[in-house]
Every structure is written in structure tokens, then in C-alpha cells.
Amino acid sequence: MRKISVLLFLAWVGFLFYAGIALFTSGFLLTRLELTNHSSCQEPPGPGSLPWGSRGEPGSCWMASRFSRLVLVLIDALRFDFAQPQLSHVSGEPPVSLPFLGKLAFLQRILEIQPHHARLYQSKVDPPTTTMQRLKALTTGSLPTFIDAGSNFASYAIAEDNLVKQLTSTGRRVVFMGDETWNDLFPGAFSQAFFFPSFDVRDLHTVDNGILEHLYPTMDSGEWDVLITHFLGVDHCGHKHGPHHPEMAKKLSQMDQVIQGLVERLENDTLLVVTGDHGMTTSGNHGGDSELETSAALFLYSPTALFPSAPPEEPEVIPQISLVPTLALLLGLPIPFGNIGEVIAEVFSEVEDSQPHSSTLAQASALHLNAQQVSRFLHTYSTAAQDLQVKELHRLQNLFSKASADYQRLLQSPHGAEAALQTVITELQQFLRGVRAMCIESWARFSLVRMAGGAALLAATCFLCLLVSQWATSPGFCFRPLLIPMAWGLTGAVVFVIAEARAAPFLLISLILLLVAQLHWEGKLLPPKLLTIPRLGFLTPAGPPRHNGTHALGLGVGLLLCIRLAGLFHRCPEETPACSSSPWLSPLASMVGGRAKNVWYGACVGALAALLAAVRLWLRRYGNLKSPEPPVLFVRWGLPLMGLGTAAYWALASGADEAPPRLRALVAGASVMLPRAVAGLAASGLMLLLWRPVTVLVKAAAGAPRTRTVLTPFSGPPTSQADLEYVVPQIYRHMQEEFRGRLERTKSQGPLTVAAYQLGSVYSAAMVTALTLLAFPLLLLHAERISLVFLLLFLQSFLLLHLLAAGIPITTPGPFTVPWQAVSAWAFMATQTFYSTGHQPVFPAIHWHAAFVGVPEGHDFTWLSALLVGANTFASHILFAGCPLLLLWPFLCESQGPRKRRQPPGNEAEARVRPEEEEEPLMEMRLRDAPHHFNAALLQLGLKYLFVLGIQILACALAASILRRHLMVWKVFAPKFIFEAMGFIVSSVGLCLGIALVMRVDGAVSSWFRQLVLAQQKAGEQSSLVYTGAGSSAREAQSHLLPPCSQDLLASGTSLFYNSKS
């Protein structure tokens, strides 16, 4: 089986999985239809006369304008409780002391002294709570769908009708200052604009200070009709420090001063609106639908009386999109065509009119206009799309027709019954709220045919992986047992959708206990037959384990301890409020105490040094640090430099805010250059490794004994297997005599002897080196204290590999296989590491700070930031792509104990006479004894790993399909499917790259042998080759049977001498 065929087949299987994911996604995450219709003053929203107050007045449209100017202050992530006062201490309860409470003091004072001029609402936000989707909702009055969340950092111009477009079309001068996202949404719409970069969440002041520089001069100039400001400091402070940090109190106090300055400059015809686009979680993130994320503050203020009554004790809860029709009618604009929000009725009351009937009629007029516009939209939308519920649509249309008829009848007698007007208002509100509820439920459009096709393709590909993985090493396998592991995996993977953070460690611990039981208690606590029967598709090793039970027990205890320690670094999902997240996930910069910060920094640097030392000791243990090859030199000197760069970056990042002002520019520059230097070193090391992957130390010495002639019944090199079976035993006996001193040594007349060291671990050394080089850039993308998790990750992987290798016998010449429990444990460990590094499969838990590591301020490399965030999120998937170690490690561990020497074929009589001799293990060179079995084992390993991953993505797809109408579909199941799909893509690509690296090393080893033969042929003399792997010197070498992988050397007449120690 050719190597390229293995990679091509794995790539084809991966493509089948990708096609299934894409097909399912196209049916599951569909967007709603966006209409391009626009409202206008010339086209009333429905039949009947316009409200009596709008007739003949200048500047009026559907309704007479109440205000001629608007100041809209958008404070990003202004959560509702940020606007609440500091609660007084109640006896018997602990005092409330939160940094964000009571900081908007001027706002609270206005609410108290001017209750008819100001009002505070709790704005209920529709998920997803990402900025771009909230800006669309605040200007169009529509409901952005879930799939729009993916374009949060690649915004496109809004095509739907919106408030900004209505303002510009009526000639209003709109001035904007703040977040540059508005420029993407409304290109060329502003008469004057001051845009500031918004992507760097570490920057708390650039945008806010830029707005304040232009805000008051612009207001005083009077050259504006609508002034929009978008402050970002509160949101960025939440992302960087969280809402409970003292820095949040400073930002809120700054916003309070801004509100005070605006109120003092307002004129009587100007309305002030202060609102947040969304809230934030207790960790400062947003994007989901938790209560804290969907709760924002909305504050209205007018220099003239706006509200007929005092505010209620508890602020009213209103949908966020209700602001759109309210502002449109207050400013005398048409309501945007696609709006489904409901006007805030109380702001349309006639405050100066003592007649309550006039206020009620004004509210009814505004609600009727709003209902007419929504009814027109429903009619147009239902004609273009068929995703609205037909029965509910008819019911709502009948409700609107009745309310509209009642309103038109009462309009003929405006001084009529007050009770009838209240009934009309109630009916109109029921219609508007019913439409919104129907749209929320209906706009999750699903294509069941595509979803079923995608799930079927995923299931078929999983079955293909299972089928071919068994066929690759066992042509006569039985078909029926294939269904058992598939059903087991699918059933177990369903648990991952909801409780993966707890299920992955539990399943991993269960597998570890099973392995320890197999190796330690077989025949003691458990019957031997129970542990040797193949279960659930697991392959039973054909041979005794190579380690005693105590050794396996120690490995298992160490593994369990590592898993428990890694579990201390966890982030709680939002659906488990009783859980408390680990405090060690935050960066050191967020810590207040200097001494504690220094202690933690020392611990992080210590973990980094331990990781470096462990890798170097491992490479030294197997002799892979003695070669003069460029990759080895890089490991000696490049890795320490990468460690120093990482430690220096941590020091700068943790103390950047405390740096003196004159050094901040230097610190900022170094904080950008150090990660780039570490990434550059890692890339250089990987390129050197790919260029020269064989880290072999070759020594040539003259004066070796001249070999005696090997008698063969043929002329020339061996041409058949029969010839090899004849000549190899003679070479074997000759090597025995050579190393035991049975031949007299000659001096200068002897041929050249070549000793090659470190070939016994050539594959695993390349893989471990590559993973270490990848770990450093990935570590920089995480918080400093995650370095402890990375150290545990490497230690945990080492223990698991040794535990798995302890129960896998070495079979020569093959076939080689990796049991199912090993592959499953490796996949579970990757999942456990994902959660141990502080991740959750939800958008609010994404580590956005990774987008700015090594990136200068003010950059516009969106693709680079997305790549950095993706590398941070799926770091565990990248590192655990080194699953070829599962195949290599048992051969590597062969060096831990002597083996009985294999007797050459045809020498049974001599074997009975001679005493048993110990054989130095060939280690990974044994894989080259049977290249076909080696390639088949790589193919089987890749297919098994893809099967385990595919079962997980299939379970997520089925869960999302079955529960597509569940309340938590967009909170749990859809994000989990998206994260699982992305993780599968990263893992499958990493798997192919890992196997390609092993094949690259294998090809380099073959090339190295060929070059050695050619060089010796040019020398024109017979020579010897001593192969060594790790541990001792060449003079301690013992003879071995010549591996078939090197039989090409026989053609040159070269004698080879193998040894596994160096």
C-alpha cells in the first residue's frame, strides 16, 4: 500500500464528513428572507385616514413630529443593573458592594427630580447578543437570525429599511461618532462622521476619548439634526476585566458625566436616548441568551414633559426593537417597512392636555399606525416566503381587522367612550405582541430533507470508517460486530451534547480503570476470560503485557491525578448557575494584588521551564539530542529562546497597565514583537524539521574487521524472497561472530564501519518535537495560568501512552494495530483538554483576547484575528492531532526491557544447542520490517480516530434535528453543533498532517539508506553499518537479524550491524 494512497483515502473520507456537515448546516442554519421594500410618507401603511394630528403640519409624515432633534447615546454592553442605584444595607443581610452599582448617579437624580421628563426601562434584547446583530435590530426593528452572528466582525451594509435611511431620505443631517462598525452597516449615510477602531477589546479609552473630543463642539455648533454616539469603554472593560473590576466603576462614572453634559446642553425640541445594545455575563462576555446578556438599560429624557404619570416602582420591561417605531413616529418619520416592534405607547400621551380622552386617543393612533405597518409587512412577507404559521397568521389578521374597524369607528367620534378606546389599545397590543412571538418561533426555518441527508451522509461515512478500519488489518473479519461499536459510540456521544465537560473526564477515567484492570488484576480480582473477550469492537492483544501490574497501577494513579488537577481549570456553562468557574482562567493583568500576581507569574514560568525540561530530557533519554542535524540544534537552542520570549511576554502583558507613561510605547511595541518572534521561531523549527526530519548521528571509523565472504548459490544481489531467506541467516551468524570477538581484528586494512544512532525513535522524536513547537504559539494565545494545564496535558499524554503501550504486544512482522480503547481515550483526552483550558461550546465563552496577541493597535487584519481566535479555541484539537504516537509508542517502549533473540529460519537445530540470548530491541525500526503493514496501521489509526470524531458530530446533528423546536436549541444545541463541526475539521486536518509527518520521516529514512549505499559504492570498498537507537555506545552493540526494510543495502555488498542503544 503506497503512502500517498493512505493520505488520499483519509482526505476523501474527511471530504465526505465535510459534505455531510455542509448539507446538514444548509438545512439547519437558514436565514430569514430579507425584504428590500421601504416605507415612505407618500404611501400610508394601510387604508383609512391618517391621525388627525398629522394633517397639514410641516415636517409631518404618518404622524406629527414631537421632536425635531435626537441625541442617541449607545453605551455598548450597558447592562440594566448598571443603571440601578446602590442598594441600601438591610439588617440581617450582607451589604451589597458591587463596583458597578450606583455609578450613574446623575441619571438616578434626574429620574427622582423630574419624573415626567425622564424614564428608565429594562430593554429586553433578542439573542444573539452580538453588537452587529443588535445594531441591525436597533435600526430596522427586525429580528436577526442566529446565523447572522457569524458575520459579527465582517459586517455588511444593511439592505432592509431602517431608521438611518429614513432620516437621510427626509433630509435630516445625521452625525455619527464612535464604533466603526456603523460605517460598514451604513456606508455614506452620515453627513459627518468620526469613526474609531473597535476591535481591540484591550483598549478601554481610544473610542470614548475620541467621541468626547468631538461631542460637545458638535452639539454647540448646531449643524446636526440627529447625533449618534457609540461608546465602547464599558464593553471592552467587561471583556478585559469583567463587570466586578474597579475599572468598570471608572468607566460608568465617565458615562454618567457624559449624560450630565448632554442634559445641560439639550434644547426643548431635542430628545435624549441612552441605551445599551446588550448586557454582559459575570465574566464580561456576551453573545448568548442568558438573563444578564439580554437585559440592557434604556433611558429617555426630554427637557419638556414627556410622560403623563410618575414612573412605576419597578421599571417596565419592553422589547429592544420597540425603540424603532417609537423614535420614527416621534421624529415624524415612516416606520421602517420590516419593523415588528411595538411603540412605547405612553410617550404619545398629550401631557399638556387635561383631557384623558385625548391622551388615550393619541396612544391608540400611534398603535394603529404601528399595527398597520406590521400588517402590511406580514402580507408582503407571507407572499414571498412560506415559513410563517398559516393558522396563527390568519388569527392575527382577524384580530387586527377587528381592532382596526373599532378604531376607525371611534375615530369618527373622538370624544366618545373611553372604555372602547382602551379595548382597542389592548387589541392592537395583542396583535403586535402576537406577531413578534410568531416571528420568533417561525424564523427558525429548517429544511428537513437537507438535515436528514446530511445526517445520513455522516452516518454512512462513520460506517465506512468502521468497515475499512477492520478490513485494513483483518480481511476475514465478521460483519455483524461492526454495528456494536457504532451503536455504543452514538449512544455515549449523545451525552456530550449537554454534559460533555463532565462526560469526557468520566469516560476517560472509566477507560483508564479498564486498562489498569486488564494489566494489574487479570486473574486476581477479575476472571481472565472476562478481560480477554473482545467487547464493543475492541481488539484483544494477542500476547502477555510487557509490564507488571504495579507499573500499570502507578501509571493509572498518575493519570487520574492529572485529570483531577486539570479539572480545576474549568468554566461553568450558563445553564448551571449553581456552578462557579475557576478563578485561574483570567489573565494575570486582571489581578489586583501585586504579591499574588508575582507568585502566580513564578508558577507559570516554572511550568514553562518544566515543560521545556521534560521535552529535552525525553529527547536525551532516547538519544535524539546528539545529532548535528539542524532540527536538533534548533531544539537545543531555539526552544529555550522561545521559552524566554514567552516568559518575557507574560511579564509585559501582566504589568502593561502599571508601566510608567514614558515606557508604555516601548512596552506596547515589545508586546507585539515578542509573540511574533516566538511564532517565527516555531515556524522556522517546523520548516527545519520537515526539511531534515531524520535526526541520526552517523559515525564512521576505519580499522573494522574485514567481513568474510558470504557464500551464495547465485551471482549478483538477491532477487527473490527465497534468496533472502538463504543469505540473511548467514549474515546473522557472521554478525554474531563479529561482535563476540570470534574473528581477529585487523588494523588499517579493514573496511569502513558506519555507526548510526537514534534510528530507534526517529518517528516519535519528530512528532514530539513538532507538537512542542506548536505548543508555544498556542500557549501565548491563552492566559498565563493555562501554562499549568499545558504541562498537565503533556504529562497526561505521556502517562496515557505508556499505559496503553504496556498492554499492546509487539507483533513482527505484523499486522500492527491500535486498539479501540486507545483511540477512544485519546479523543476523550482532547475533549477534556478543551474544557480544562477554560473553553465552552458557546459564543460568550470564546477567548476574544487571543485576537490581539502580537497584533498592533488599529490593525484591520480581520482574517488574522479570526485565525488567532480559532487557534486559541481549538488548541486541544491541534495538539492531539499527534495521534500517530498511539502506533509508535509501543515500539518506543520496547527499549525498556530485553527481548529474547529471534532465531533465523532454518536454524532450529542450532537454536536447541545454543543457550537463549537476549536481543536488543529494534524499536520503531521494526515498523519498517513490513512497510505494507506499517501503512495499513496508519490508515486504520486514522479511520478509527475519524470514526470516534464522526460519531460525536453525528450525535450533535441528531440532537439538533430532534430538538430543533426546543427552547434551548439556540443556546445549547446549535452552538454545540457549530463548535463540534469546526473542531472536527481542525482535528481531521491535523490528523492528516500528523500522518503526513510520519510518512515524511519514513521517506527520509529510506532516502538516507539509499544515499549511504551510493556513497559506499562510490568508495569502492566493502563496509559495515552499525544501527543504534538509544541508551548505550556503539561498542556495546549486539547483532540483529537484518530488517527487510534495509535489504536494498545487500545489493551493494554492504554488511549492516544493528544496535538499539547509543
From TrEMBL:
CDD domains: GPI_EPT_3 (cd16023). Residues 897-920 are annotated as: Disordered. Gene3D superfamilies: Alkaline Phosphatase, subunit A. Pfam families: Phosphodiest. It comes from Balaenoptera physalus. GO terms for cellular component: endoplasmic reticulum membrane. GO terms for biological process: GPI anchor biosynthetic process. It comes from the Eukaryota. Pathway: Glycolipid biosynthesis; glycosylphosphatidylinositol-anchor biosynthesis. Belongs to the PIGG/PIGN/PIGO family. PIGO subfamily. The chain crosses the membrane at residues 448-469, 481-498, 504-521, 599-619, 634-653, 665-691, 762-781, 788-810, 874-892, 945-965, 977-999. This is GPI ethanolamine phosphate transferase 3, catalytic subunit.
